[in-house]
Amino acid sequence: MNILGQSITKNGALLGLFAIVTTGVIAGTYLSTRDLIQDNIRHAEESALLELFPKSSHDNSMLDDAINASDSELLGLRETKKLYRATMDGEFVGAILPATARDGYTGDIDMIVGIREDGTISGVRVLSHRETPGLGDQVDYKKSHWVDGFLDKSLSNPEEAKWAVKKDKGVFDQFTGATITPRAVTKAVHKALQYYAANKAEIIGSATKNISEQQTSTDLGTQR
Predict the structure, then answer these.
(1) Same domain for 38 and 113?
(2) What does this protein need as cofactor (predicted)?
(3) Do the strands 121-128 and 91-101 form a parallel or antiparallel pair, or are they unpaired?
(4) Confidence at residue 206, expressed as pLDDT on a 0 to 100 scale
(5) How many angstroms separate the CA atoms of 156 and 172, rounded?
(6) Closest by alpha carbon to 101, among 198, 191, 196, 195?
């Protein structure tokens, strides 16, 4: 019994030591790769933004020039997300708005909508969805370039009644065998334009304010 007890104690100590070492290794691995993971995430986010506003169109870091958006009525958001701004030489160029189409065929369709200063669309990208493979998933840019149909469109081009898929007497194509998904995305993009028009002054104002603050900070640093 004594031998058994000693054996159990010894094994317990070994297991405890093993757990401590394993935890240390995991923690060390996490700490050593955390910055790399964050850099990869940031790079992926920046790549998505640059598809809507290429580097040639702005000179600021859009990831570092953002405000929170939580609108559920026009943007359809279920949680607070980032709205990014693009500027060139201190002048506002456009914004990238988060939007959610809540009426997709199989659930929410999350996207970003690039809108130039003049209210025209610079691009649309679907970030996540659960639409049917081979049908509704054509909203994904990797599957098809259907969303390019929104390029250069605005609230006045086409007129409001035509902001719909062709089946609903609008100007935008639907997919063969799938109408619900393109209908939901078209509606969400149109609403994003409405949100931009209603909040343009605030979006531009906060962007130029941010630039002014950065310039002031730089001037102060120079004076020192």
Answers:
(1) no
(2) FMN
(3) unpaired
(4) 64
(5) 15
(6) 191
For residue range 101-154, list pLDDT tens digits in order.
Answer: 999 999 999 999 999 999 999 999 999 898 888 888 899 999 999 999 999 999
Residue-wise pLDDT tens digits, 159-185: 999 999 999 999 999 988 889 999 999
Please name the amino acid found at residue 209.
K
Q: Which residues of 75-108 are buried (b: 16+ CB within 10 A; e: fewer)?
A: bbbeeebbbbbbbeeeebbbbbbbbbbebbbeeb
The C-alpha R_g of the chain, in whole angstroms, comes to 25
Tell me, rounded to whole angstroms, the distance of Cα 62 from its chain centroid. 12
Give which of 123, 53, 61, 66 is closest to 94, Cα–Cα: 53
- CB 95, CB 192: distance < 8 Å: no
Distance CA 94, CA 128 (A): 23
Range of the structural domain that residue 29 is part of = 1-52
C-alpha span between 204 and 211 (Å, rounded): 11
* pTM for this model (two decimals): 0.76
**Residue ranges in the chain assigned as alpha helix (H):** 2-52, 180-223
Q: How many domains are there within the chain? A: 2
Residue indicated by tokens 């102060």: 220
Q: Which amino acid is at 154?
A: S
